[in-house]
Amino acid sequence: MTDTITRPPGFRSRVVDRGQSETLPLISIAGTSGKTTIAWMLNSIFNKAGWPDAAWLSSGVYVEGEQQDGELGPWARVLLAARYGELRVVVQEMAAATVVAAGLPKDTYPVGIMTTLCGNNEACLLSEDASRERQAMHIVVESMRPDGMLVVNADDYDVNEVASKAHCLVFPYALHNDNPVLQARLNAGGIGCWIQDGQVVVGDRHESSHVIDVASVPATLGGTMLFQVQNLLAATAAAVAIGIDPLIIEAALLSFTTEPDLQPAAANVFAYNEATVIADAPELVATLKQLARGIRHIPHRRSLVVCGRLPRLSDTEIHEAGRVIGGIGGIILLHGETDDEARIAAIKAGIATVAVPPIVINVANEEMAVDQLLNTIGTDDLALVLVDDAEVALSHLWPAPAINLSSRRRGSSHGNPEGAHNS
Which terminal residue of the chain has fewer beta carbons within 10 Å of its beta carbon, N or C? Predict the structure, then answer.
């Protein structure tokens, strides 16, 4: 496969403790969603491969999974350690506001990942957040080394428009092999990553190889959560690009979950009373739609939703969010009316627009809503908790002992009675 003959600079053979590396082994991740999940997927892969790694994520700076005190000081030490070969790979999550305000050095990053902009949602593209993210993506493209590799979500047309300006190799990933962007890249002699017969596949137009069964990765909920499948594709493509054995990638991701202590309310999945509970805090109505679409594909007896003010969504998205939530059906436990009557009224108005409106029960606050949910759900039920306050919601969903969000080490164990677990 043509593009894998030479790895991106910074990821070729490295001699540790033999002076400075000319190119830092940096991986940038940009997009409106999926960045942190992809970063932790890569962390799992690096751990399995035995590669010392570090990352600067939205929650802080981590070295081999351990959160550091502060950000700028630890990040400077991380870059120094990477330059001298003490760290094999460094991941940087790109916050759009920071990238736009401070910029990035050009021709610096050997590997980049661009996840999604608006998921082809035209209304989302008109938002201020989307405009800022698009601007940040252009800056990320300019920061790529000419001999680097940009891993791109081929299913997002707007991301591909930005990526078309890249002066480095492009490594597309897509949910289907017939994606036109993916096919164009393969026909041009490049490589790509896609889903075929339920398997993540990497290949070119002549040959391909299976990496992992999608349904075997717990975070995808049997392959039903397509946004998590896309995150899986991105992480796999990036790992292959820098030369990690597919067998190692598979072994690392077979147990991958979005752990609540590291990614609170990031599509965390729990088993409770033989029911499935998903906790998430959507920041865009487009991501809420992806979540709802995934839920509809999960076999279940009945659906229940806990919903509050949805504080991370803009005022212009609230009515549409209500419509999406109403479309999930079942029972909605709605809280927060005393905190923000206008937003709750807009959510209710959106719910009322669906053809068969669900049952809406008003609850005083988030804590009581989650408690009522857990007292209600039973075998084969599916519950979605749209989190306002992660500390409040997750302390009830992840019982005995209560979640401690200050615990920031991946892989730490927690007791969960009655078979409750995060998966």
Answer: C
Q: How far apart are CA 39 and CA 160, in angstroms?
A: 21
What is the residue type of 119? G
Q: Indicate left, alpha or beta for 301 from its phi (over 0: left) and psi (-120 to 50: alpha).
A: alpha
Half-sphere exposure of 19 (CA within 13 A, CB side): 1
Distance CA 262, CA 67 (A): 10
What is the C-alpha separation between 366 and 216, in angstroms, rounded?
A: 33
What are 242-259's pLDDT values in tens digits? 999 999 999 999 999 999
**Which 3 state secondary structure label does DSSP give 113?**
strand
Which of 50, 48, 105, 44 lies closest to 79, judged by CA? 105
Helix (H, G, I), strand (E, B) or coil at 421: strand
Contact 307, 386 (CB under 8 A): yes
Q: How is 145-214 classified by DSSP, letter by letter? A: EEEEEEEEETT-HHHHHHHTT-SSEEEEEESSTT-HHHHHHHHTT--EEEEETTEEEEE-SS-EEEEEEG
222 within 8 A of 215, measured Cβ to Cβ: yes
How many whole angstroms separate alpha carbon 167 and alpha carbon 171?
12
2 pLDDT band, cuts 50/70/90, is very low
Identify the DSSP state of 144: E
* Cα-based distances in Å from 378 to 273, 274, 275, 423: 6, 6, 6, 18
Q: How far is CA 325 from CA 296, 314, 349, 376, in A?
A: 11, 16, 11, 19
Q: Which secondary-structure segment (H or E) carries 14?
A: none
